[in-house]
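Subject: Re: docking follow-up (zinc ion)

Dear J.,

Thanks for your patience while I sorted out the input files. As discussed at Tuesday's group meeting, I've set up the holo structure prediction with zinc ion included as the bound ligand rather than trying to dock it afterwards. The sequence and the ligand SMILES I used are pasted below, so you can double-check that they match what you have on your end before we go further.
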Amino acid sequence: MSTAPAAPGDDSRTDPGGSGASSDSGSSDGGRDGTSRGDGGGFGPGAALAGEAARFARLGWMRATSGNLSVVVGRDPLRILVTASGLDKGALTAADAVEVDDAGAPTHVGGAPTDAGGSPTDAGGTPTDAGGTRATGGAPRRPSAEAVLHARLIGLTGAGAVVHLHTVASVLAADRFPTGLVLRDHEMLKALGRAADGDLVRLPVVANSQDMAVLAGRVAAAWEPLTPAVLVARHGMYVWGADLLAARHRAEAVEWLCEWAVRTAERTIG
Ligand SMILES: CSC[C@@H](O)[C@@H](O)C(=O)COP(=O)(O)O
Ligand SMILES: [Zn+2]
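The structure tokens for the complex came back this morning:
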């Protein structure tokens, strides 16, 4: 007898081994598997995404439904839980997340299995017309429009979590430093895993695109192995880490550095 696929927000299905628990800054809020208790209530990756999103939203970094977060829940094959699209990121619940594969395609659509392209199928693999990924008893949910980019970054970097935030300072910095934000001699660089003295760090900047394949290609071409962030012009930042807590701390550092750079440029250049 085959096992029924778990609902996308079903946190009981968490794969602790694949959740990115090997944080470089500890596990999230005490959760042994790095998935933590989130503000959305409960434990597991869905609750962790909701909790992180609520935290970022309180900072004003996920306004107007912007931004999206993801966490790895399995490695073989790669399975990623990503926030659902179009929702208020300050008010997510544990069920407001969708599991996707290494290409960013939903693995469960309408609670049913999918084919290799993410299209819904019946138990025998015949395509069906189910409309969207559905948490148990809930409304249909689609993965973030930027799930493809999350999957690409996780595949490239081996990260356990990715955060995408629409912060004002990251957009201002990308405007001001369109060829990349070069930084050195900052204590805050240590939060990015870099040295505080003499280490030249460049945050890459890429042009925005509404075509996720194009944007993912730009980010894939621009990212640098020692620098866990990319700025997207007129859009925001992508930051990654071993788990959600590491990604959060790095995002906070990127925001701090962007704000410093922009304010300093205003003061010294005008
Ligand atoms: C204010 S809409 C922003 C979106 O277009 C997108 O950039 C974004 O960050 C959120 O998309 P989502 O599909 O909700 O994950
Ligand atoms: Zn965005």
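A couple of observations from a first look. Residues 64-68, 83, 85-86, 144-146, 164, 166 surround MRU (ligand 1) (CB under 6 Å). The radius of gyration is 18 Å.

Let me know if you'd like me to rerun anything.

Best regards,
T.
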